[in-house]
Amino acid sequence: MGGDTESLKSQVRKVFEGGGYVFATKAANIARDAGFTNPARLASNENPFGTSDAAINAAKEALCSGNRYPDETADSLVRALAEYHGDCGLKLNVVTGVGMDGVIENVIRTFIGAGDKVVVSTPTFSFYNLAVTAQGGVVENVRRREDFTVDVPEFVGACRGAKIAFLCSPNNPTGTITPAEDIEEILKGLLKENCMLFLDNAYVDFCDTDYRRLMKDYDNLIIGRTMSKAFGLAGMRVGYAFVPDWYLPYYKRAQTPFALNNISIAAAVGAIGDREFVKRYVNHVKEWRDAFEAGLKKYRMYPAGANFVMIDVAPQKSDDVVVKLAKKGVIVRSCASFPTLGDTFIRVSIGDSWENEMFLKAINEI
Ligand code: PMP
Predict the structure, then answer these.
(1) pTM score > 0.90 for this model?
(2) Residue 99 near ligand 1, beta carbon < 6 Å
(3) How far apart are CA 283 and CA 344, in angstroms?
């Protein structure tokens, strides 16, 4: 091949010289090498019950129109979501994206340019940082308290001069729910700073806190949601958000054309029609969260509102525990890569019953 690749590499932006998203592949390889062909997959917070038949059938049908571009407005999905959320009594503006990751990226694209400040409540989901940095923005991390609750005045104070702030509730990986009253206080404080709040509600289906009413009164609020979790469509990449009226055209202008494809749109509409599927899974998660708490003999579990729990395995190191569990056929996530969290926490998804039983047995043996 011709060319000086070192010179070509020097043209790539510095932000991509290192870093990147951390995927849970190492533990999966260890479990496979230990002979487990069907390990307990508890690292990625996926729905263990598969995909609803309604979604599968709709997706199969959509395959037949693969020669056509998708509806660029994903109108059928937007309408289905608006109707699904009609129970909150508000007419919500819905925008979509390729997973909530796609939504986050697009929102950041609309607000952030080189040197712009973004505040992130941390420890949390890593993609806000990656996406902001990719856009040339600068992140200020604001640490949660020792028990992972949010110090509201401190968070609001840190947002001075920021364009947007990110807060995840229930938080990944700690599971912490921030009360709606605290979010309202943050929104009021941020309005004075002319700052947006992106409230990440990826796991909100698994708790009883409802933030949607806040869309009525706060023009600086965007609520991100995903169909990857409760709806079981992680592989279809469907995310969405509630946005204020004034922001709608900006989001649409910034979005990559035809972001969602025919199949994911159809699958999502199908999945929304199968409420029983979602309900059954959510109930299963709630029951097993309690069973985890009762079944853990040696380690502390944090209160969680999500389809996963975070466990402190001190005095052991989380990376070591992940390897030990993988050798017993259980794949969980070490939280050592979450900045500021320390190296003794693991995150464990609520899986199918056999997977959860396998985990409890394995962790109590370590
Ligand atoms: N936010 C949080 C807190 C998440 O954990 C995830 C998924 N890992 C996402 C957003 C992105 O979800 P999606 O699959 O819709 O891109």
Answers:
(1) yes
(2) yes
(3) 29
